[in-house]
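User: I'm designing a mutation panel for Guanylate cyclase and want to avoid disrupting the core. Could you give me a predicted structure to guide residue selection? Please restate the sequence first so the numbering is unambiguous.

Assistant: Good idea. Sequence first, for numbering, then the predicted C-alpha cells:
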Amino acid sequence: MKGIVFTEFLELVEEKFGLVMVDTIIEESNLPSNGIYTSVGTYDFAEMLQLLTSLSAHTNISIDDLLEVYADHFFEVIKRNYAFFLEMYTDPIELLASIENHIHKEVIKIYPDAELPTFEVVEKTQDSLVMIYRSSRAMYHFGLGLMNNTFDHFNTTATIVTEILKEDGTEVKFVIQKT
C-alpha cells in the first residue's frame, strides 16, 4: 500500500483526534515501519489495519465508519493535489465509470508500484452505474466514501447500495443511481 495512504491517514487522525492519538495508535501497533512513512514508500496493508483497529478501539467508531471519514479527508487531498483527475469530467457517473480504464492508469504513472483495487463496470446508463470492486484489502467503505464525495463534488445526489459478494469484503457490488 502506498505511503500517501498512511501519511494522509495519520494527518486525519491528528486533525480529528489530536497528536496524542497519533502517538497512541502507533505505539500500540506492532508496525515494522515503526509508524514512519513517506508518501512514495510502500508499506504492508497489515499496518493500516492495525492503526485502524487501534483508532476504532479508542474512539468507539467502527472501522467501516472510520474508512468513510478517511475518504472525506482523502477526497480533499485529491482536490488539492490531483485536481486534474476531477477536471477531466463533468459528470460523476462518467468519472466513476472511468476509474479502472483511465484514472487508475494515471495513478500508476505517479505511483508505479501501487496495488490498486479493480472496478469492473457491469452496467452503465446516463443515470446509473453497477460496478464490482475487487481488492485483496477489504477497504470498500473507503471507496464508498470516495464515491459519495464524487457526487457531492458535482453537486449531484445518488443512492449507492453495496452488496457483499465475498464475505471478507474483498469483492463488493456497487449499485449507483442518481437521484
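For picking mutation sites, this is relevant: The chain has a mean pLDDT of 93. The two ends are 34 Å apart (CA to CA).
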